[in-house]
Amino acid sequence: MENVLITGGAGYIGSLLTPMLLEQGYRVTIFDSFLFGAMPLLGFSRHPNLEIVKGDIRRPEAVQEAVRGQDWILHLAAIVGYPACAADPYLAVSTNVDGTRNVLTAMERGQKLIYASTGSTYGKVIGIATEETPIAPLTLYGRTKRDAEKLIRDSDVEHSILRFATVFGSAPRIRLDLLINDFVYQALHNRQIVLFEGHFRRTFLHSTDAAAVYPFTIKNFERMAGRIYNVGDSSMNFTKRQVALEIKKSIDFYLHEAEVGTDPDQRDYEVDYSRLKTLGFSAEVGLTEGIRELIKVLGVLHLPNLLRNA
Ligand SMILES: NC(=O)c1ccc[n+]([C@@H]2O[C@H](COP(=O)([O-])OP(=O)(O)OC[C@H]3O[C@@H](n4cnc5c(N)ncnc54)[C@H](O)[C@@H]3O)[C@@H](O)[C@H]2O)c1
Fold this sequence. Notes:
By secondary structure, the chain is an alpha/beta fold. It contains eleven helices and 14 strands.
């Protein structure tokens, strides 16, 4: 049985990924500081092959202890998104960059790393973003993820880097700062969406597909090692207006188009996913199905602002 360490395993993606790996027969250790509590783990905490460690990725000794004896390190722990990083830049850099350095330092020969990066590393792109497109992130969040990527690529650790699209959908730890989740929440609870940069092209991936790419990468690691992968699906590139209109098919709300804001990451481009697609990965959950699920879940969830990343 293979041992997998998931840093940030109690988070949005991690709380879906952990039970998926347990079901597939891996022994899983979650290493997390529990910024958002441990509730997301309660649905599967009884599993005999699950260990839970409360620890801080910024502490080298704690990381070293957690990494020891693992076969796979799935490194997800981070301060996620530009608002959260801008709110505490020191925390963002020490967690996202220094934390990654701690993981690399702790890793031993033979252990393999899969790193959760982001499309926010690209910055403003004209045309289609491929893995070869030069990255020029515009926000601190994007820069911390770029710097972590570089540390990994410059190391001699065996690795794959996954650059995720914007994830949406439900999870034991739900996030409401993500575009589609936020739109559905606003439509349900405020009966309006204020839409700016509606023509901006964005790229999305359902949360279960974001989790599913990890067992896929583990199984295909020999073919995927040493490379960067955009993680998403060409069928999931939409403008913000298209997303709002899709939600409107199911919820009656007022779509207020006004140029009152701007995306600091300036994400307005299509992303090419052929590198991952060629290996056999494609998203299973589409926009309509994911929105239908969110309406069910967010309709009965009225979360206090505290639980929002933004
Ligand atoms: N969700 C998305 O749309 C998306 C898109 C692109 C990339 N990613 C990347 O995927 C990863 C997971 O994102 P998520 O959406 O699950 O975010 P999340 O905020 O839900 O999860 C992050 C987890 O990291 C933990 N953490 C934070 N600081 C820590 C520290 N110092 N020590 C230990 N644990 C710490 C948090 O407690 C949390 O459980 C991140 O690296 C993120 O950059 C996510």
